[in-house]
Amino acid sequence: PSSRTVSSFHPSSLSSSSTMMKYSLAAALMACSAAAFAPQQQQCARSTTTSSLSDAMPERMWDSMVDKSERSKAIPFLPRAPALDGTMPGDVGFDPFFLSSIPKNFAGFIQPPSWEDTGAGLPTIYWMQEAEIKHCRVAMLAWFGWVATDGGFGFPLRFPADIYSVDAIPNAYNAHDILVNQGSMGFMLLAIGFLEFCSSGAVLVEVSKGESDRLAGDFGLDPLKFLKDATDDEIKRWKTREVANGRLAMLAFGGIATQTALGEAHQGFPYL
């Protein structure tokens, strides 16, 4: 019996098992290779299904928000926003978030549409251009006023009253809180708010309804007649200068406000 047991594990049997495993593995590999070339019809059906799904999908809003045929001048690795075509003063093509391409009627911010029909409405680029020009002008006035109040031009420029004197208001940084307590700031808020409502609000509604062809930011204010008898190129050059100086003023005003907030040692001119 012991000889029979030993003979059942003869090396030849192990060799046969190894050969069978090799044959089985080779057959499996051949089957996989053949399967890779077999389902041509399934692949075609799958691609047809994908194509039909893409055709059924609605057009992406992104396709209408960019001009894929042209690159932005300010950011060359991004496509150009369609509204920024270089025709507006100060337009250098800078709109990395494509805010100017958002489809929105901004006339509803001024007057609810339920009141009356606002017509075609105010496009996004018109609203943003109006807002930028207004901020530019306010920033230029604010920078000049801040520096003049603190004596940046040789002497403190103040209203002729004791409540506006240097003793009452030591510097422009503390002027806001002091004037709020005095009541002057509340009166200024009401006066400017009334002018804002009567000028910008009413005019923009007229533009929205097509009753006015007014350009964004144009109030017809030209007391020194810089634009009188000027060509279109000269007018655009003047307006571009205004926008460029206004953008610089916004940065300058932000810089002064930040510097003076660092402490009392930085609240007087030259804010160092």
How does the SSE layout of this entry go?
Elements: H1 2-7, H2 11-37, H3 40-56, H4 61-65, E1 67-71, E2 79-80, H5 124-149, H6 175-182, H7 184-208, H8 232-260
Helix pairs in contact: 5-8
Quick gist of this model?
This protein has 272 residues and is mostly helical.
Tell me what you see in this structure:
Helices cover 53% and strands 3% of the residues. By secondary structure, it is mainly α. A two-stranded antiparallel ribbon has the order 1-2. Helix 5 (124-149) crosses helix 8. The longest helix has 29 residues, at 232-260. The protein starts with a helix and ends in a 12-residue tail after the last helix.
Number of strands: 2
Ends distance: 107 Å
Helix content: 40-55%
Q: What's the oligomerization state? A: single chain
Given the helix and strand composition, which structural class is it? Answer: mainly alpha
Principal-axis shape equals: globular
**Helix count from the secondary structure assignment:** 8
Order of helices and strands: HHHHEEHHHH
Strand content: under 5%
Q: Major β-sheet, in short?
A: 2 strands, antiparallel
Strand order of the largest sheet: 1-2
Low-confidence stretches: 1-9
> If you compute it from the alpha carbons, what radius of gyration comes out, rounded to the nearest whole angstrom?
37 Å
Query: How would you state the average pLDDT, rounded?
Result: 81
